[in-house]
Amino acid sequence: MLAIRIIPCLDVHAGRVTRGVKFGRAEAGELRDVGDPVDLAISYNQQGADELVFYDITATAHGRRLMLDVIERTAAHCFIPLTVGGGIRTLEDMQEVLRAGADKVSINSAAIANPELIRLGAEKFGSQCIVVSIDCKRVGPDKWEVYSHGGRKPTGLDAVEWAVKAVTLGAGEIVLNSIDADGTRAGYDIDITRRIAERVGVPVVASGGAGTLEHMAQVIQEGKADAVLAASVFHYGIYTIRQVKEYLASRGILVRLT
């Protein structure tokens, strides 16, 4: 059994880490500034995070280029795997991000628009580098729809079917973001996490809704997640990485304690 990974998520807008609720929009003043991305990344590296995820949350919606300077500065100070997403549309974008110091690239809207990008990326850089991020919202009983452009546009895609297709094309990991739960601290969407985890043969990272230590244990034990991603509980000092790992270990969940 592989150790469960604890992954802080840095949602970056205009060079700053921000937080909102249910994919709040910058243009509507719905995001709260929580700090400098490099400073936060260094802190989480020191706390013992297993990985870091950087999302430029408005790059695709605003048609903006990649935040290479932030990636380079983070990679120079942190020595844990770094996943970067937001605004990655081509193989050339992937190469730039990897050269800047990322270990994985996360694609979402570009993969929906051109699923072949998953296969091409996996062939060129290896499946272990290609993460497909899925933003989904419950739209009916036992039904979750995929949204693109930072949760702004419904796509008509079924979340489970899209996850299966993404893995078939070569994705090495799925990050599952619940729009309904995002930033609420009311718990992960256990149901959709489990449904996808049971259908794909790659790691599934649960994202959206972490508010308590029990929430993290539940999405691992009941939702079958391979990793938990969280933002608010770490940014606002509610829990440290160490506290999360010690709690999960007390529940019999294998983690890396450093």
Task: Describe the protein's topology.
Blueprint: E1 5-13, E2 16-19, E3 32-35, H1 37-47, E4 52-56, H2 59-62, H3 68-77, E5 82-85, H4 91-100, E6 104-107, H5 109-113, H6 116-125, E7 130-140, E8 143-148, E9 153-158, H7 159-169, E10 173-178, H8 190-197, E11 204-207, H9 213-221, E12 227-230, H10 232-235, H11 241-250
Parallel strand pairs: 1-4, 1-12, 4-5, 5-6, 6-7, 7-10, 10-11, 11-12
Antiparallel strand pairs: 1-2, 2-3, 7-8, 8-9
Helix pairs in contact: 1-3
CATH class: Alpha Beta
Task: Supply the CATH superfamily name.
Answer: Aldolase class I
Order of helices and strands: EEEHEHHEHEHHEEEHEHEHEHH
**Tell me, what's the shape?**
globular
Strand content: 25-35%
Q: Biggest β-sheet, characterized?
A: 8 strands, parallel, barrel
Specify the CATH architecture.
Alpha-Beta Barrel
Q: Fraction of residues in helices?
A: 25-40%
Question: How would you characterize this protein structure?
Answer:
There is one protein chain. It is globular and about 40 Å long. 36% of the residues lie in helices and 26% in strands. The chain has an eight-stranded parallel beta barrel, surrounded by seven helices. With 258 residues, the chain is of the alpha/beta class.
